[in-house]
Amino acid sequence: MKKKYALFLIGSLMVNAALAQVGIGTNTPNNTSMLEVQSNSKGFLLPRMSSVQRTSIASPATGLQVYDNNTNSLWYFNGTQWVNIVMVASFGDVKSGIQTIDHSGWILLDGRAINTLTATQQAAAASLGLVGNIPNATNSYLVQNGGAMGAVSGSNTVTLTQGNLPNVNFTGNTSNAGSHNHTTDPAAFNSVSAGNHDHWVDPPSTSTTPDGIHSHSHGDTDPNNQNGLNTGVGANGPWFGLTTRTTSSNGQHQHSLDIGGFASGANGNHSHSIDVPSYLFNSTRSLPYGKCRLWGFCHSR
C-alpha cells in the first residue's frame, strides 16, 4: 500500500523537477506559477473556518488566505491585519461611489428602463418590487427619509424645531448709545358696537339726465317799460318792472342738483373698523439698558 500510494502522488502531481513546478490536472503548468490547477468540473477549495478560528491563527504569514464561514467571504492577511476580499452585499443594498458606470455587479441608479438591464439584473429588480425604471439618484446622497423603497425624495432645506436646538438662555444688555427710529404699525381693530349715534351725510352734487323736452317759467324785463320801473299790478301782484315769461320747450339740457347735508338716524348699534397707519417715532435721547420710551411703550434694541 505504501508503495502504491507514493506512486499515485507522484503520478497525480506531475512534478516538474527541472522547474520545481507542480501541475494538477495539467502536464504543462504555466511557467510563471509554482502551482497550477486545471479542471472543467471541480474547483480549488481553500481552508474553511469560523471568524474565531481565523483570527486565532498564530503569526499568520503575509498573503495567507482562508474562507470565513461566518462572513461567507475570502479573507487574506496583509502582514498587519485580516482583510475581507469581497464585501458581502445583497440585492437591494445601496452604496455611494464616485464611479459613473456599472461595476462589479453594482448598477448605477440613473433612472434607466429596467428592460435594458441583463436578465439576472431584471430578475433582481423584480424581486425588489421595481417596475418600469430603476430609481434616479442623480445628484442625490444617501439618507434615510422614511419614504417608500426605491423612492428618491428630499430637498436642500431642513426645518429645525425647539427640540433640535440647545436649551440656552441668553442674557445681557445692549448698548444704550445712539438715538434711532422705530416703525410702529398697530393692527386694525373694530370699535365696540355699544351706543346709538348718527352720521352726517352730504351727498355730492349731481346732474340730471338731459333726456326730455320741457320749458321753464321765469321773470323778464317788461318790454313796454325797458328804461323805467313798472310798478303795475299783474295777475299775481306787483312785479316792479318784471313780467312772467315762459321759455320755449325746444332743446334738451341738464340741471345740477345738490342735496344738502343731513344727519342719518341714530338707531342701531354698530362698530367701526379702525386701522392706525404705520408711523415712525424718534428716540431723542438714550435711556438706560438700551431702551427708548414714547407714549408709554418701551422697546429694547
Based on the model shown, name its key terms.
elongated, disordered C terminus, 3 helices, 301 residues, 21 strands, mainly beta
Could you give a quick summary of the protein structure above?
By secondary structure, the chain is mainly beta. The chain has three helices and 21 strands.
Oligomeric state, counting identical vs distinct chains: single chain
Element string (H = helix, E = strand): HEEEEHEEEHEEEEEEEEEEEEEE
Major beta sheet, strand line-up: 4-5-6-7
- Tell me the total number of β-strands: 21
* Average of per-residue pLDDT values: 74
Main pleated sheet: 4 strands, mixed
Which class best fits the helix and strand makeup? mainly beta
- Binned strand content: 15-25%
Which term fits the overall shape? elongated
Number of helices: 3
First-to-last CA distance:
105 Å
Unreliable stretches covering 5 or more consecutive residues? 1-12, 225-241, 285-301
